[in-house]
Design goal:
With about 210 residues, the protein is mainly β. It has 1 helix and 16 strands. The strands form 5 sheets. The chain has a 4-stranded antiparallel β-sheet, with no helix packed on it. A hairpin with a 7-residue loop joins strand 10 and strand 11. The chain is elongated. The two termini are about 35 Å apart. About 25% of the residues are buried.
Length: about 210
């Protein structure tokens, strides 16, 4: 932050790659090293999207920090739930409207999420999640091998596409529902997005290869 007198100061973070310090002094909190989006509300509170912690945190004008969305687990567990119980996946942007609504670019889930909007249509997302979903195990991986487990009550094949961090297609293949597939991804360590598509629905989840 650059103050009105031209002096620069830190408002959040202690230079450590960690996810801690909620409820305490903002400048002693660990916030990780991958920060993409910052928002400011009309009162001067600062909101930060922490990619590797999968949370949105708020630094108040009195210098404290608190998480306001995300439970720290990379994934998606539905809408219409308390924001601190919601899973985010590599959130990279945050915007605060003049009415206090907080919009989150939930990159790994391919969604714009909202805290304070009261979106009733979140029930539809939960119903879709129950009809079609997939998991990646282990995630993070310790190498190039992992399994994709598909659960679906929807007809038709599932297309799996894996993209790297810059959006390039790395691997694509067809799957049958309600089966498990062992995958070898000949690619370097890093962040990837795994997209599963049916004729009526698409779900995207992050994959971390160490």
């Amino acid at each position: 932050k650059i103050r009105t007198d031209g002096i620069i100061e830190t408002v959040l973070g202690n230079r450590t790659d960690s996810c801690n310090g909620d409820g305490g002094i903002a400048t002693t909190a660990g916030i990780g090293t991958e920060l993409e989006g910052i928002g400011v509300d009309d009162s001067g509170n600062v909101y930060v999207a922490e990619i590797n912690c999968s949370v949105i945190r708020k630094t108040t004008t009195n210098g404290n920090v608190v998480s306001i969305a995300g439970d720290g687990v990379i994934g998606f567990n539905g809408d219409s739930i308390p924001p601190l119980l919601a899973e985010l996946a590599l959130p990279f942007g945050v915007f605060v409207s003049s009415t206090g609504k907080i919009y989150i670019a939930d990159g790994g889930n391919g969604r714009i999420r909202c805290v304070g909007c009261g979106v009733a249509s979140g029930v539809d997302d939960i119903n879709k999640l129950q009809a079609f979903n997939f998991s990646i195990t282990p995630n993070p991986t310790s190498g190039q091998h992992f399994a994709i487990n598909i659960t679906s009550s929807l007809p038709g094949e599932v297309t799996i596409a894996i993209f790297n961090a810059v959006g390039e297609l790395v691997k694509s293949f067809q799957c049958l529902p309600n089966k498990s597939y062992n995958i070898e991804l000949d690619a370097p360590a890093g962040y990837y997005l795994v997209r599963a598509t049916t004729p009526t629905q698409t779900i995207t989840k992050p994959l971390v290869m160490n």
